[in-house]
Every structure is written in C-alpha cells, then in structure tokens.
Amino acid sequence: MEASNVSDLMFLKDHFVRSEVFCDKFILQCYFNVDDVIGVFGTPGNSEYKTEKWYFTSQSGDNDICMQHGYFGSESFSSFTFTKVSLDVKLNEKLKLPSENIKLNLMKLANQVQLVMTLIIEKSTFPTLLALRDTSKDLRYFVVKNGLYCSPIEIKVHANTIQCTYNIDDQITFPCSETQSLKKWLKKYCPKHVTIEKFSCDSDNFAKMEDLKAFLLSFKTKMAIENLDLEGKSELEFIELMRYLDEKNLKRLKISFSGDHDNNTNHCLMLDQITETAHWKHAVELILEGSKIAVSIRKLNHFLKVTAFLDVITVENVVFLKHTLLPSLLPRNFNLITPTHSDLQSLAHHIGCPVVKKTNGIEYNQWLFPATKFFEILIHKTINGCTCIEMRHRNDKSQFL
Q1: Which 8-state DSSP code applies to residue 17?
Q2: Which residues, at least 6 apart from 263, have a Cβ–Cβ distance to it below 8 Å?
Q3: Is the Cα torsion angle 346, 351, 352, 356 positive or negative in sign?
Q4: Whole-prediction pTM value?
Q5: Three-state SS for 283?
Q6: End-to-end distance of the chain based on CA atoms, in angstroms?
Q7: Cβ-contact 147, 165 below 8 angstroms
Q8: Are 237 and 203 in contact, with CB atoms under 8 Å apart?
Q9: What is the pLDDT along the chain (401 residues), one digit of tens a residue?
C-alpha cells in the first residue's frame, strides 16, 4: 500500500492501536520525508542506522504496536512497517539504548513487575541484589513469592578466596567472592536445609584454612552438599574440612592427591580415616586422582561407580570385587588403574580364562559372566604402561567390546 502524506500514516496508526484484529505485518510505501513523521509522532523510541522505531500502546493492552521506518533503494523512497510486539521485546530493545533515549510507559510497566524485576536482577551484582532485597518488605515479599530467591550452585575455595556461584530463578548464574555478603545471603535468604550442588577446596592453594573453618562454623547447621571435591597432600586436611560439612545428601566424593606432583618424595596418601567417615559411606560415586593413593579394596564395594588410580591392586582384590559386584541388583561401573603388573595367569586360575581381543591396537583380556545384568571384566595396558581394570554391568551382550 502507498501513502502520499503523513495523515495517511496517522490514520493507520490509530486504526492498529484500536483494532483487536491484526495481521502479522503491514508495510506502507511512502514518498515523504521522515522528518515530517518525527514532527507528528515525536522522537523514535529506538533508532539505529537508517532505521527508526516508534511504539504505541494498543487499547487491548496485550501487545504494543511498533511502527518501523526504513528505506527501499534510494533514501527518497521510505517504507513504514506496522507489527505487534510484546512488552519484553520492547523493553529489551530500550535497555540497549543510551539512558537519555529511554522512554518507558511506567504505568504499563506497573503491570509487568516480574518482567522488570527479572531484567533488573540480571544486571545486578551480588551486593546490589542483597541491598535491593532489603529495600522494603513489599519488595522482599515479591522476590520470595515469585521464586526469585538465590540458590547456591557451587562453593569453590581456591587462591585464598571463598567463591560461590549462585543462581536466580534457575536461569541466571553469578559468582560471589565477598565473604560477608555470602554469609548474609546464606543465613537470611536461602531456603532452610538448602543443598549446595558442589563444594570444592584446593587446600594447597588456600592458606587461610582457619578462615574457612570460621566461615563454615558461622552457620547454625552444617552445609549440605551433593558433590565434594577435595585436593591436597594430607588426609588430615580432608578430615578437618569434612567435619564442617553435612554428608546426608552427598552423592559424589572426589579426592585429588597433589603430593604426587613432587618427584622428590615417595609419600603415599593413605585413606584409612576417610574411609570410616559418614561422607565416604553416604557417597555413591568415588573419584580418586593421583598416582600414590592407597585404600583398601574392601572399602569400595558399596559404591556404584568408582574411578580411581590406586597404588596397588592384587589378584585377590580383583577376585573379591568380582564376587562382590557381580550379584548386585544395581548397575556397577568400576574403572581402576594401577602402576603394578597384573598376574593374568594367576587371575585366570581363580575366575577362568579370558577372551583376548584387540581393538585399535590395544589388547584386551575380557571375562563375561551371566547375572541379572551381564557382568564384564576388562584388563588392558594403558599407553604409559599402567594396568587398567574395568568392571561393569551391561544390559545385553551387544554392549560388550
């Protein structure tokens, strides 16, 4: 459709604002100057290179009407496109503009509090968010009522900082390393009995362990966690920290021994005390990293999944795990690596002769046992000469090597 003057444009604008029926897009070709339009409709609500947009509130209140000006070929040939836009699209476009160009219909925003607050929260720092929540009772009630409370995802202790990553409304994530703000948030705003998805501590690179203990002791109840990652050189360091953490919701325990990075020591990390803790007994998945970790194989049999580099694994250990894991009603998956040599001949005497297969240049010794789910044992040499022992349940034979 073509228009010869601004009055035609004004007529269409009034029509679309009043009308409840609207096509997806309406394009009007014009031959007059855009300055004449600005004289009638005012400064555009959004202006980019050779493109201007005006927004008008529809009488239905469901959407706004956007009138966009552009050019076809020569700049003397203008086009105006009318479309319906939702408030969030309009608001996001306005937030991209310099502050002096922002013109919002505040009366309409009053009916879109949750949208506005979510956009504000997305652009707020952690201390700002806490201050915002303390502004008034009504604002705090709104935030809690609409589920926009802070929920911790991960607490990471590293390089002399206690950093927490939190989410808001299950979509927005931010880091926070301000201890005082973190304490205030956890104490006042988190739901009771909150469980943190992951707590990781690198004690080698965190010299202020007393500060960490004081931080954890400042809460009335122990901090509940799902995943616990510990890195250091001493079992005592791990034990001391675990005393301040609740174990009831623990699913995965990861222990990384950093002492094996020092080539001048033969120190081996013995996990005698940790295996007696409630954290060890509650976890269903275990990860042990480091080439000098020693733990009794009998302390592993309750885990569903184990990935570990152990100092020594004997034939008796393999036989014990085979008899323990095979009848399990729950699927087990063990991946054990050791620098020691595996006595395959002695092992074959206890559990039978393996089937030898070669895949991608690697020779595998495979045992297959019928059970509720098929149970497989695979033993092979790794690239660096270590022995890898895999034990796992499978649904059927087609899943095997």
Answers
A1: H
A2: none
A3: negative
A4: 0.63
A5: coil
A6: 69
A7: no
A8: yes
A9: 666 677 778 888 888 888 766 666 677 777 666 777 777 777 776 666 567 888 887 776 667 788 888 776 555 567 888 888 776 665 555 544 444 444 555 555 555 666 666 667 666 666 666 677 778 777 666 655 544 455 566 788 876 677 776 655 444 455 566 666 667 666 665 555 667 888 888 876 666 777 788 888 877 788 889 999 998 888 888 898 899 899 999 999 999 988 755 554 566 888 999 999 999 999 999 999 986 789 999 999 999 999 999 999 999 999 999 999 999 989 999 999 999 888 899 999 999 999 999 988 889 999 999 877 789 999 999 988 899 999 999 876 555 55
Measured in whole angstroms, the distance separating CA 313 from the mean position of its chain's CA atoms is: 36
DSSP H or E segment with residue 52: strand 51-57
Structure tokens at 181: 């703000």
262 to 40, 60, 169: CA distances (angstroms) = 77, 72, 44
Amino acid at the residue 349 = H
- Do the beta carbons of residue 68 and residue 53 sit within 8 Å? yes
Buried b (16+ CB within 10 A) or exposed e, 52-68: bbbbbebeeeebbbbbb
Pairing between β-strand 252-257 and β-strand 195-202 as defined by DSSP bridges: unpaired
Length of the chain: 401
